[in-house]
Fold these 2 entries.
Entry 1:
Amino acid sequence: MAIERTLSIIKPDAVAKNVIGEIYTRFEKAGLKVVASKMKHLSQKEAEGFYAEHAERPFFGALVEFMTSGPVMVQVLEGENAVLTNRDLMGATNPKEADAGTIRADFAESIDANAVHGSDSTTSAAREVAYFFAATELCPR
Ligand code: RTP
Ligand code: MG
């Protein structure tokens, strides 16, 4: 299997719940390494640019409002099949549909406040990692 990188965000609801460490533990137990991380309070422009693919969707305004409502923790995860491994750990977008034991099932309240973001493909991952991190900020090992 290929070693990949993926962009993960612990969203404002999960940061407010003080479960950053519990979520990091899930990454580590699944064999994903944190190779870069930063806490940030996204500006409206940063959130709109990050979720630009959803700009025409009816939920876009609510998504941007939520993502700017408090600080987020942004990290690059590296490991075998990192994109899909992280999506499996996250669970379905709507926590009501997320499998038991996934991050969203355990920590998310609603489809809007759903605890985490994860890149959905290696192509998205490349764009999203570069959106938040300079190449020199990544520390693979
Ligand atoms: P994310 O990008 O945040 O990792 O979530 P995702 O891939 O599971 O879902 P995506 O389709 O990319 O949607 C991005 C975020 O928009 C909100 N959303 N609301 N009300 C709705 O129908 C709806 N659909 C999506 C969610 O907060 C989702 O995480
Ligand atoms: Mg998505």
Entry 2:
Amino acid sequence: AKDANGGVYRRYNAELESTWQSRAFILHELETALAEGQFEIYYQPVIHARNGAISAEALVRWRHPERGVISPAEFLPVAERMGLIGKIDDFVFAQVCFQIRHWQDNGMGDIAVSINRSAQDFGNLTGRLDWVDYIQQHEIASHLLTLEITEGVLLQRSTETRNLLRHLRHFGVRISIDDFGTGYSSLAYLKQLEVDYLKIDKSFIRDLETDANDKAIIEAIIVMAKRLDIGIVAEGVETESQLRLLTELGCDWIQGFYYARPMACPDFEQFVRDWRKNVSL
Ligand code: C2E
Ligand code: CA
Ligand code: CA
Ligand code: CA
């Protein structure tokens, strides 16, 4: 399989994870990767369908010295099982904070970035790196950070999780529900916990033009979200007709290969400059 940027993804985990010996090997490799800075953040544009505003989702990549760019689908499940996902997520968070600040200091202005957080590790968010402390210490504009979590996190129903999310949100960090519609779809949490965005999963977008059920579901999600004053993001938008349909249905934010694939930072910055130039014309 080819990755978003033409590099080749290796069948990595299945092959290597088959023995205890190789598990130890991967653990060693992942620790080396963290220590030697082999993880890199790619940015994928998220674009406001009507006003052209641009934001991004941060997506981690492993640039392995011999194996090339490895997709998160390949190594995150391994990292989760090895208990290393938290360290990777902390790295992503700190790096994104640095980047947001850097853009502000270097004339790129405000670019909001959303960050993924593994459900498996979510409970540790307080234990390890305190987002609020970090944001304050480094004077990061908290409203430019969005935390993407899956429905699974909310269904853990722990008071600690809920308090943590409230605390972050109170502090200005936005909360987004990722892969919306694929989880257990208990909507009760939308009432209890205030969230800022719902991301409609790409599985609903794929057959949007041909599958009347998918279209009906998306329509219903959008109507509900509007009523609750929650922003809508559609991910996995690949074609112009999907874009048109989603815009007609009232979807706010669009993310997908139609606009751009996830890109290394310099390419993303170039995309932003070009995009803004075109929008202001
Ligand atoms: P996700 O959060 O659902 O991220 C969206 C995925 O969809 C990304 O895959 C992105 O490249 C892909 N995508 C975007 N537009 C399109 C499109 O138009 N068509 C199709 N077919 N795909 C599209 P990616 O980058 O391989 O990431 C896979 C998953 O890995 C993410 O799914 C997320 O769950 C996880 N992930 C990525 N970065 C991080 C991270 O820093 N921390 C954690 N915990 N998880 C991460
Ligand atoms: Ca995501
Ligand atoms: Ca998603
Ligand atoms: Ca996902």
